[in-house]
Write a structure and sequence with these properties.
There is one protein chain. The protein is built from 2 helices and 8 strands; from the N terminus they run E-H-E-E-E-E-H-E-E-E. It is an alpha/beta fold. The protein has a 4-stranded mixed β-sheet, with helices on one face. Strands 5-8-7-6 form a 4-stranded mixed β-sheet, with helices on one face.
């Protein structure tokens, strides 16, 4: 049996147009689709970086956001890179763009070189060298 499924996330941003520009600048994502709504927001947008892709839209209803307890809200996005240098580079550009540092780049107890930041709307983004679903190489 061939598995053709892919996994994609979606986010409601209170200021989706600003989020698109920030995600481009801070993380290097490319906006591949941007459909404005009639209120100055975003009805539907798509972003990608290599094999990572997700959608976002304007959060008109004002969805509840979990608060961080310790170093996490309990969920977030994880982006896998090939090298520690890539993790270091995205951490540098993200924090320079105003991301809140949660974890500086470092080696985890289980062998993943990673960092975590929170974007201006407090979504968590972790960047690391481990690829989920692949055998550990440690």
């Amino acid at each position: 049996m061939t598995n053709t499924a892919t996994f994609h996330a979606y986010f409601g941003y209170r200021d989706a147009p600003a989020a698109l520009r920030w995600l481009e600048k801070a993380f290097g994502f490319e906006t591949t689709m941007e459909v404005p709504d009639d209120k100055g927001g975003i009805m539907h947008a798509e972003m990608r970086y290599g094999g990572v892709a997700f959608t976002l839209f304007t959060d008109e209803p004002g969805y509840d956001r979990p608060t961080r307890k310790g170093d996490t809200v309990g969920h977030g996005m994880y982006v896998a890179f090939d090298t520690q240098d890539e993790v270091d580079a995205v951490y540098a550009t993200a924090t320079a763009a105003g991301a809140e540092s949660v974890w500086m780049p470092e080696l985890s107890e289980w062998g993943n070189y990673r960092c975590r930041v929170a974007d201006p709307e407090e979504y968590e983004w972790t960047f690391g060298t481990h690829r989920p679903g692949q055998p550990a190489n440690w």
